[in-house]
């Protein structure tokens, strides 16, 4: 899961500069997917350098998403729970190889073998426990989330142990619910109080809570969640509910800026607040098991491990009825990215990984490349923007001092990049790109003097308009896309 070539170095100025395009790309993808809303943030070595919000937190009310809008981040909760378990292990309050039976004696009366499971197996999803029990309809609000009595009932079923321990990675929300009870037993306080006192409050995460209890002050700030477009033409709002004994697996709510600050406290080095000592941090982030069938993914003792381009990242996703979220941390570079969406089919994974790839593209200029400057930079800026033809949309952007042409509709916007060179005030040239790109051909700008380009011709020589100016008629016919010389304003 590692690459021989190290990832490119990132600087605050580069992240801020490229972050402007990341923000624009996020906004385009939200509209492209017809998502109600999304929120994103990027931090480098603890400093939040980008905070973005697009779309609506509540469609009926017309409430926009802003950087204070709270999302249900679901299985991000597992990282908080695991952090506290590792803290308690460092303090000697418990051991990672302690059995469930030691901390939860009632498990000796559960299905055979449950009491012998270790905390390490629960942390790494290798216990073999059922994911959610035989009845998981709490995930579509047909029933409440499990309370402790219902959790015990799941474990009474002999089928609750689906495989033997340490056979394979087998994701289990039930396992993390049990870890929440272990934290309570070992710490002498409730799980929620433990994660507040040990993680949330020390980091000043004022928009983060372990669950949404009745009367919680964050409840009014939570984005309305929505159903998928996969089975209906319109999205339907989904109510917010508490998570009971499942909170340690899925209860947390937060914002993107809080999450990147939280993840930054799991980075290497000692700059800024840290939640774990180096040994515990390595234990949590080490790949203990690969995730079968998912290339470049593994799992540590409380965090997922994902290779994005040349970066090894750790973090977690979250799936909630109406919210899909994803957060990533490169612990070596200190790069943290979080994306939160309020739809059950929200593409949070592609939005988070795409942001990492765009930042790396900006940082990957070949050695000796001179960044654009002077008149060449002025011309490049005149060409930047989102350009549309009948066939789709392309972006011209300055990333890391280079002028590039990208396809924002791609899940990986770096997957078909063309590099452009400035020839003069109205002419660019495609100097590199994939096989079907128009390498060697010119891109012609329509501009007056030093002003921004109004149209450009690229690719197959078609006129492209700025997206907001696309002259799309009610029906496209011969000559209907502004016949030459008859554009509005006499252009």
From TrEMBL:
InterPro entries: AmpC-like, Beta-lactam-related, Beta-lactam/transpept-like. GO terms for molecular function: hydrolase activity. Keywords: Hydrolase. Pfam families: Beta-lactamase. Residues 32-353 form the Beta-lactamase-related domain. Its EC number is 3.-.-.-. PANTHER family: BETA-LACTAMASE-RELATED DOMAIN-CONTAINING PROTEIN, D-ALANYL-D-ALANINE-CARBOXYPEPTIDASE/ENDOPEPTIDASE AMPH. This is Serine hydrolase domain-containing protein. It comes from Aquipuribacter hungaricus. The lineage of its organism: Bacteria, Bacillati, Actinomycetota, Actinomycetes, Micrococcales.
């Amino acid at each position: 899961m590692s690459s021989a070539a190290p990832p490119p170095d990132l600087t605050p100025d580069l992240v801020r500069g490229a972050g402007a395009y990341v923000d624009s790309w996020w906004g385009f993808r939200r509209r492209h997917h017809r998502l109600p809303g999304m929120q994103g943030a990027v931090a480098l070595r603890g400093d939040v350098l980008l905070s973005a919000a697009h779309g609506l937190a509540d469609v009926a009310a017309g409430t926009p998403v802003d950087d204070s809008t709270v999302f249900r981040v679901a299985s991000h909760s597992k990282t908080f729970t695991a952090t506290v378990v590792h803290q308690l292990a460092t303090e000697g309050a418990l051991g990672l190889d302690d059995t469930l039976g030691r901390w939860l004696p009632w498990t000796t009366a559960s299905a055979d073998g449950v009491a012998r499971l270790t905390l390490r197996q629960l942390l790494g999803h290798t216990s073999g426990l059922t994911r959610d029990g035989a009845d998981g309809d709490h995930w579509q609000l047909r029933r409440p989330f499990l309370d402790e009595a219902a959790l015990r009932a799941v474990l009474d079923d002999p089928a609750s142990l689906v495989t033997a321990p340490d056979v394979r990675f087998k994701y289990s929300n039930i396992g993390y619910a049990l870890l929440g009870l272990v934290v309570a037993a070992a710490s002498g306080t409730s799980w929620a109080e433990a994660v507040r006192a040990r993680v949330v409050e020390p980091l000043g995460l004022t928009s983060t809570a372990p669950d949404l209890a009745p009367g919680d002050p964050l409840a009014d700030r939570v984005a309305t969640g929505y159903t998928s477009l996969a089975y209906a033409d319109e999205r339907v709002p989904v109510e917010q509910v508490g998570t009971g004994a499942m909170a340690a697996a899925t209860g947390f709510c937060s914002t993107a800026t809080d999450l990147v600050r939280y993840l930054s406290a799991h980075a290497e080095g000692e700059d800024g607040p840290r939640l774990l000592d180096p040994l515990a941090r390595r234990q949590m982030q080490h790949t203990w098991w690969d995730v079968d069938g998912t290339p470049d993914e593994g799992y540590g003792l409380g965090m997922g491990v994902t290779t994005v381009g040349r970066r090894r990242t750790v973090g977690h996703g979250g799936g909630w009825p109406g919210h899909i979220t994803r957060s990533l941390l490169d612990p070596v570079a200190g790069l943290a990215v979080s994306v939160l969406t309020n739809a059950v089919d929200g593409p949070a994974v592609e939005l988070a990984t795409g942001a990492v790839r765009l930042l790396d593209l900006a940082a990957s200029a070949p050695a000796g490349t001179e960044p654009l400057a002077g008149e060449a930079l002025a011309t490049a800026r005149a060409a930047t923007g989102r350009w549309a033809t009948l066939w789709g949309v392309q972006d011209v952007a300055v990333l890391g001092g280079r002028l590039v042409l990208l396809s924002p509709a791609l899940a990986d916007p770096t997957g078909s990049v063309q590099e452009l060179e400035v020839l003069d005030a109205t002419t660019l040239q495609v100097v590199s790109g994939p096989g079907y790109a128009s390498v060697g051909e010119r891109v012609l700008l329509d501009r007056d003097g030093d002003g921004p380009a109004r149209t450009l011709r690229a690719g197959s020589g078609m006129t492209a308009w700025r997206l907001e100016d696309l002259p799309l008629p009610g029906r496209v016919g011969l000559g209907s896309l502004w016949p030459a010389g008859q554009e509005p304003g006499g252009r």
